[in-house]
Amino acid sequence: MGKRFIPRPSFIGELKNYFMITVGLTLYAFTWKFFMAPYQFVTGGITGVGGIVEYTTGLPMQYTYFLINIVLIIIAIQQLGWKFCVKTIYAIAVMTLALELFDYLFQTWPTALNILGEDKQLEACIVGSIFIGMGIAFCFLSNGSTGGVDIIAAIVNKYKDISFGRAMLYVDACIILSSFFIIPNDLHIGLQKVFYGFINLVIVNVSLDYMVNSNRQAVQFFIFSSKYDEIAYYITRRLKRGVTLLDSIGYYSGKEGKVVTTIARANQSNQLLSAIKQIDPNALVSQSKVMAVYGLGFDKIKAKKKVEIDNTSVGKTK
Question: Cys-Cys with 50: which of 64, 68, 161, 277 at CB 3.0–4.6 Å?
Fold first, then answer.
């Protein structure tokens, strides 16, 4: 078949990705300092951990965020390799600097608490959560990462049969539940922190899903191309996804060919489409959402009730 061509991101394309990651994380940092911190809301992720530390000790959250991520990056380099970590390291640096910048600016600038008032916590939580979801979406659409929980989820997903999105959800839920102890001996305020934390978690995920078809959603591709071998090679080597080749015959042309079919995560769609465009600009591509995917690399099949399987009729005909 000859030497296969594996597309690599162009310089301009990578520059755009880093720009959008910067925009997304800057929006995230602004939202945190403007909406979340003044009302002492807690979100998921390492920013949520940093927020809890800031509310209880006064240590600015960006320092906690940076230190925890440094430890996670060292582990991730050993477990996942440098390729996974390059954009993550960049994201951590941008997020830390942006949080430090807005922390300084909002010492004199008005925040949501000054503008909306103390009785508008729900409104601030809703709007802030939407903006946080948008910021994360910009990162995901640019094949980036926000660090923190993304790293933990990726490592868990490597060794356990737990989907990436589900692992993130479990970690985020634990962080939000821990906000109950921000102000000890006050049951009302503790429950209130948890309540707003879960509102944030739900709205962030809905906002994120709206922009990138959910980071847990799978998509199915049917790719019609004469360069099917190069496309299949790219999918298996770069995206680490399985590929099935289907025989095809053109009705009008009568030509025989192959159809590449694969299932991937929704946040891998742009990367795959970009590669297909480089390999074969004339390829015909069909992309569709998948309700659920079970098996290797996706969700585990769950069935609480066992059923009896009758194998006595196997190989027999009526």
Answer: 64
Q: Beta-carbon neighbour count of residue 118 at 10 Å?
A: 9
Residue with tokens 């309540």: 195
Both tokens assigned to 69: 């991520």
What is the separation of C-alpha 119 from the centre of its chain, rounded to a whole number of angstroms? 33
Beta carbons within 10 angstroms of residue 124's beta carbon: 23
Closest CA to 282 of 215, 231, 212: 231
DSSP helix/strand/coil, 220: strand
What CATH number is given for 218-290 in this structure? 3.30.70.120
CA atoms within 13 A on the CB side of 284: 6
Look at the alpha carbons of 20, 25, 26, 27 in this order and tell me if their dihedral is positive or negative: positive
Q: pLDDT: is 258 or 7 the higher one?
A: 258
Q: CB-based contacts of 48: which residues, under 8 Å, 6+ apart?
A: 42, 172, 175, 176, 179, 197
Domain ranges for the chain: 11-212, 218-290
Structure tokens at 128: 């802030």
